[in-house]
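Give me the 3D structure for Transcriptional repressor NrdR.
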Amino acid sequence: MFCPFCRHPDSRVIDSRTSDDGLSIRRRRQCPECGRRFSTTETASLNVIKRSGVVEPFSRDKVVSGVRKACQGRPVTDSDLAILAQKVEESIRQTGTSQIDANEIGLAILTPLRELDEVAYLRFASVYQAFNSLEDFESAISLLRVEHATGLSADAADNVDR
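Predicted structure for Transcriptional repressor NrdR (162 residues):
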């Protein structure tokens, strides 16, 4: 870490603290050359591998904009979408990988979106899972009904349906 004042190529960590969201670390550093102190913020990078093979940094804003289209006309607020994007990022970071397929992000969106708004969930799933017929919609709606009737999660309801 270069000192921002004298450009010395080394520094000493004096104090480290995690941020409130737990996703970054703030470090207080001191330059051994000039003695001045400065702060750095470190975050673990999370990259998305798109279908085309292009790798780009994960963006909560992209999650929000993708889900916002499915939530159009639904009683979902911007803060609801921000919380959903945070849940998605947290679930992806819990996998411990630094790169993730765009497809995995879509899967991570489905569960919190279903909890937020079932109509928006069906809209998103219809595009994401490429529903081709009314039967695909009927199957998804049946799973939601089984989930409501039994109190099971969608994954467990899917197994009951089979």
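Residues 156-162 have pLDDT under 50 and may be disordered. Let me know if you want a second pass.
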